[in-house]
Design goal:
The structure holds 3 protein chains of 3 kinds. Chain A is mostly helical. Helices cover 75% and strands 4% of the residues of chain A. Chain A contains 15 helices and 4 strands. In chain A, strand 2 and strand 3 form a beta hairpin. The radius of gyration of chain A is 20 Å and the shape is globular. In chain B, helix 3 packs parallel to helix 4. The longest helix of chain B is centred in the N-terminal third of the chain and has 20 residues. Chain B is globular. The chains are: A mainly alpha, B alpha/beta, C mainly alpha. Chains in contact: A-B, A-C, B-C.
Chain lengths: 337, 403, 300
């Protein structure tokens, strides 16, 4: 058997394990815990998208929380004002955030490095004010409440949801929906990264000048990466709105953008597999840090200390660790006959 | 809108039937020895100073438990972190209901945070007791949300008192307003306009600021330039102190109405120290809690009890007025639980919370009753006016009804 | 239509803008210091300044005179900055820039949490270094303290300029930042130069905190969070590499925001910050290195 066939068999095995885990994890944990995992799934989708931009194209974004806001508010506005069924708003939320991502990618044509990071930072800071200003659409400071104002559009209002003849609890439904979309998004990201677009992205990351002289359209590549990344953030924002059944400016502060970036870096930039760990990290860390002690200040201290500790121990994130661990195996697979 | 609320009633009715059908002998969250309740509060992030409300309440429950609890049941109060983010409130509240199986949600902090869970809790008929928020909706909309009840005097009512006072005592005043650009500030402003009534034209200038602005120098200068002689400060402590300091910098000394959020004796003390006695002299405010930083209460029995509980049951900093609030709301819950009888049910505690008449709350100003009834779902709706004189608050006049 | 334009009002708003901008400038200089000497943005700069302010408060509470507490706090903060660099930045010195940025974000929470843990979150005040007595010139009011704050920023810029230009240590520090490898060859201890940069920035941050707390009339653990945002904006407007640019950028920003807030009604309170940020973005698009910065050459 050739090493290529062995490699394909290995990938199929991994895919099968992931699929089985996806289907059966909710049976192993309590109903509420599958809801928590759905929350981690929201982070997973946004972080995979951020990784496409930051990990593969080298553009730092401190504003991805704001793109999630665009997605979340698109969903909420369609549900509350237009009475759309909540789950059917997801594609439009992705498209809306993709367009906004494209627009905030435009300054990237002139700015690079930390200046671009600060431009996206400005966007993250400005979005709560913008949400409050256009209150007719966004509900202003109070936000929009799906369950209160459009209960019949909320999936699982009665406590159970029936999908393809299977009846399940609302929490299980949220889990399957979020991680189902998460896996689809993951596969798409994997295909992008492996394909021609991925090569162009990496060329821009490694050297803009070299990429440009090799005929890469820098402007097109960067804004495309921003737009694609925005679609992921928008879908994640939509799922967040569907899960918590509200949107509010207080949910989309700069802290959210920080969490996404921390998740992507902890997961390991330039590695897609590590993003699962990054997502679990940012989902559970805030809760775990209140378990240490609820004394004034301690949760924040523990939260920050954990981030620093992970960075010191794994400067290239979990992805970097996985690559190191897998190297002997892959080397053998590809080099020996 | 009307259609939506009709539909929600239908759906809620169906849900209620499902709950009744599965009705068990003992109530969720209640065992022969415990009653488990829960709420959310910011334990992390910039708003984490507010956690003193939950901690003061927790200390009071420990004190009650040490004395044997209520009907031999200990009160187990779980407070979870939401970082002041309503999305996290929604998650943490569902965890309390679904995972921790609490009897009731109690004393969750913040207006948007409580609004984020109100529809959910009402759909499941889980009591949402004594929301820590000054929004009017929690007391006003009880017909639509019968499982929700507020606690503190609301901001709109507070503004109304100031407006009525101005009309009665200084009808020729020229009024300027500094308010926070959110529901809290806007509610106070709306109340002021309601209280002024036909005299709403007295307001010559309204200046708002954002809670994340560094300072309000520019706003104070604009108010001074509008030539007003009465300044309404509807702002949190940081900006309230700035209002005095920047006014003095402009050599301007208006009559100040200070909202209750920022009128604690220690805050007024800082303002006086940063300016001078004349700048804060004559400031007016309302009050309903005993202020732990006010020396007037040093020998008061209620405040002695407060300090001993804070010390013995690890309530935190005893000079924190939020802790007094927490104890008062915990005191009210205990009274409601007693009233709900030997075998408390969710419906029973709601009924008790809707028919309170507590006149002995040791943490409230003497004479203030925690009172609810048919058509009155505002537990605390009385307050006193006070005037700052010579570096101290002096209460005057009778109790005001605020609603 | 303008019926009666009030020039005093305009002058007053400009002066207040300068006073606010002067406060932001002190922190902006600290941000620029770190950027110049290490090439990263320190998101924890404001929190470190807040922590220094609490140290100063404790020293004053323990009976030290204001200026003794001031100098001691600056010294402690310098040592603290060096210690932080050695403890958490040095291990990731060679990691990607983003890793270092994430560490500073982690530091943000650690320092803020520690300050809440050690000192309760009540509102406090710190005495002012300068007189706050109101002064009025032609109907425009300000205080000695406003002038003093701006003077301190400019003095710090001057001192830093002298230090980086004329002292051996300063020159070595600059060399280490511009070309670490060549500096190592000529015997500069590059790693310690980064620590020096952190120490200086922390000391400047301490000065900033001790001027900001009285200028904003009171302080708690959230003291520097709003200021950090404006300091960033001011530093970017001026050009991240230039201390003088940071001061000028912050002052311009202060005036800009006040004038927008006073004269452009449709902007209102909600849009004041987004509009100011949009203006900065506009400046950056025309001059990507800010008003005073020099554009970097790109290496292949």
């Amino acid at each position: 058997m050739g090493s290529r066939a062995l490699g394909i068999a290995l990938w199929l095995l991994v895919a099968a394990v992931v699929l089985v885990a996806y289907l059966f994890v909710p049976r192993l944990i309590s109903d509420f815990h599958s809801r928590e995992l759905a929350g981690a799934g929201v982070f997973f989708i946004a972080i995979v998208g951020l990784n496409l931009l930051t990990g593969y194209t080298g553009q730092i974004s401190l504003g991805h929380g704001a793109l999630m806001a665009v997605g979340g508010y698109t969903t909420a506005a369609l549900v509350v004002h237009e009475h759309w069924r909540d789950v059917w708003t997801i594609p439009l939320a992705g498209i809306a955030a993709g367009i906004v991502g494209f627009v905030i990618g435009l300054p990237a044509l002139r700015l690079s490095g930390l200046y671009l990071a600060l431009a996206t930072f400005a966007f993250a800071i400005a979005i709560p004010s913008l949400l409050k200003k256009f209150s007719g659409l966004t509900g202003g400071g109070q936000g929009l409440r799906l369950l209160e104002d459009a209960p019949l559009q909320v999936t699982g209002l009665s406590g159970t949801v029936t999908v393809f003849g299977h009846s399940m609890t609302q929490n299980h439904f949220l889990y399957y929906l979020t991680w189902g979309l998460g896996l689809v998004g993951f596969v798409i990201a994997w295909l992008v990264v492996r394909g021609g677009a991925g090569r162009t992205f990496r060329a821009v990351r490694d050297s803009e000048v070299a990429a440009a002289s090799a005929g890469v359209d820098l402007a097109w590549t960067k804004t495309l990466a921003f737009a694609l990344s925005g679609v992921y953030a928008g879908v994640a924002g939509a799922l967040l709105a569907i899960q918590v059944e509200i949107v509010n400016p207080l949910s989309f502060t700069f802290l959210l953008s920080i969490l996404l970036l921390v998740g992507a870096v902890v997961g390991g930039l330039g590695s897609l597999g590590g993003m699962i760990v990054g997502a679990l990290f940012v989902q559970y860390l805030p809760q775990l840090s209140t378990h240490v002690s609820t004394a004034q200040g301690v949760p924040d201290f523990v939260f920050g200390a954990a981030i620093i500790a992970v960075m010191l121990l794994l400067p290239t994130g979990v992805g970097g660790l996985l690559r190191r661990l897998a190297r002997p195996l892959t080397t053998r697979l590809y080099l020996r006959p | 809108m009307a259609r939506a609320s009709y539909l929600i009633l239908l759906v809620l009715g169906a849900l209620a039937l499902a709950t009744v059908a599965s009705g068990a002998a003992s109530e969720t969250g209640v065992t022969p020895t415990t009653v488990t309740i829960g709420g959310t509060t910011p334990l992390s992030g910039p708003a984490s100073a507010y956690q003193s409300v939950a901690k003061g309440a927790a200390a009071y429950f420990r004190y009650v438990n040490a004395k044997g609890g209520v009907n031999k049941r200990k009160i187990n109060y779980i407070y979870k972190d939401d970082g002041y983010d309503p999305s996290r409130t929604a998650d943490a509240t569902r965890e309390l209901v679904q995972q921790d199986k609490v009897f009731a949600i109690f004393n969750s902090l913040g207006t948007d945070q409580n609004l984020a869970t109100r529809a959910y809790l009402n759909a499941l008929k889980v009591p949402q007791l004594f929301t820590a928020s000054g929004a009017t909706t929690f007391g006003r909309d009880y017909k639509k949300y019968p499982w929700t009840i507020g606690y503190q005097p609301n901001y709109r009512a507070e503004g109304t008192i100031y407006g009525r006072y101005i009309v009665r005592h200084t009808p020729k005043a020229s009024v300027g307003v500094l308010y926070q650009n959110d529901d809290y500030g806007k509610d106070l402003l709306a109340g002021l306009q309601r209280g002024l009534g036909a005299k709403a034209g007295l307001i010559r200038s309204k200046q708002s600021y954002n809670v994340d602005d560094p300072d309000v120098q520019s706003e104070i200068a604009k108010l001074k330039a509008a030539k007003v002689n009465t300044l309404m400060v509807f702002a949190t402590p940081k900006f309230a102190i700035q209002a005095y300091v920047y006014a003095r910098k402009l050599a301007w000394r208006p009559v100040v109405y200070m909202n209750a959020v920022s009128s604690a004796a220690n805050i007024m003390g800082l303002s006086t120290a940063a300016t001078n006695r004349k700048q804060t002299e004559g400031t007016l405010s309302i009050v309903f809690l005993k202020d732990p930083t006010d020396p007037a209460w040093r020998k008061d029995a209620g405040m002695k009890l407060y300090r001993s509980i804070m010390k013995k049951y690890r309530g935190g900093d005893p000079n924190d007025v939020y802790a007094v609030y927490g104890m008062s709301v915990a005191h009210t819950f205990v009274e409601a639980l007693k009233k709900a009888g030997k075998n408390p049910t969710r419906a029973g505690i709601m009924k008790a919370a809707d028919s309170l008449n507590i006149t002995n709350d040791p943490f409230l100003l003497p004479g203030i009753a925690v009172k609810t009834g048919a058509g009155d779902h505002f537990p605390i709706d009385q307050a006193k006016l006070q005037r700052y004189h010579n570096g101290h608050w002096v209460a005057f006049g009778g109790l005001f009804r605020v609603r | 239509m303008i019926l009666a334009f009030d020039w005093t009002q305009l002058a007053q708003q400009v002066v207040i803008g300068l006073a606010s901008g002067g406060v932001w400038a002190t922190l902006a200089v600290a941000l620029v210091l770190i950027y110049r000497s290490t090439g990263v943005i320190n998101f924890a700069q404001g929190e470190m300044a807040m922590f220094s302010t609490f140290i100063a408060w404790s020293l004053v509470e323990h009976g030290l005179s204001y200026w003794a507490a001031f100098l001691l706090t600056v010294a402690i903060s310098f040592a603290g900055g060096v210690a932080v660099e050695r403890a958490v930045i040095r291990p990731v010195e060679r990691a990607p820039t983003l890793t270092v940025v994430i560490v500073t974000l982690g530091l943000f929470f650690v320092v803020n949490g520690a300050a809440r843990w050690i000192w309760s979150p009540e509102t406090r005040s710190l005495p002012n270094a300068f007189s706050t007595r109101p002064i009025a010139v032609g109907g425009v009011a300000f205080s000695i303290s406003d002038l003093g704050t701006i003077a301190v920023s400019l003095a710090a810029v001057g001192l830093l300029w002298l230090f980086f230009r004329y002292t051996k240590l300063g020159l070595a520090s600059r060399a280490a930042a511009v070309n670490p490898d060549a500096s190592r060859l000529v015997g500069v201890r590059v790693s310690w130069m980064l620590a020096l940069g952190w120490g200086l920035a922390a000391a400047m941050g301490a000065v900033s905190g001790m001027l900001t707390a009285p200028a904003l009339a009171s302080f708690d653990q959230n003291l520097m969070q709003p200021v950090l945002l404006y300091a960033f904006a001011g530093a970017v407007l001026g050009g991240l590499g230039s201390p003088l640019g940071a001061v000028v950028g912050s002052l311009l920003l202060g005036v800009l925001i006040n004038l927008i807030g006073t004269y452009v009604n449709w902007v209102g309170t909600d849009l004041r910050l987004p509009v100011a940020l949009a203006v900065i973005l506009g400046v950056l698009l025309v001059r990507p290195a800010g008003l005073f910065g020099r554009p970097l050459e790109t290496r292949v």
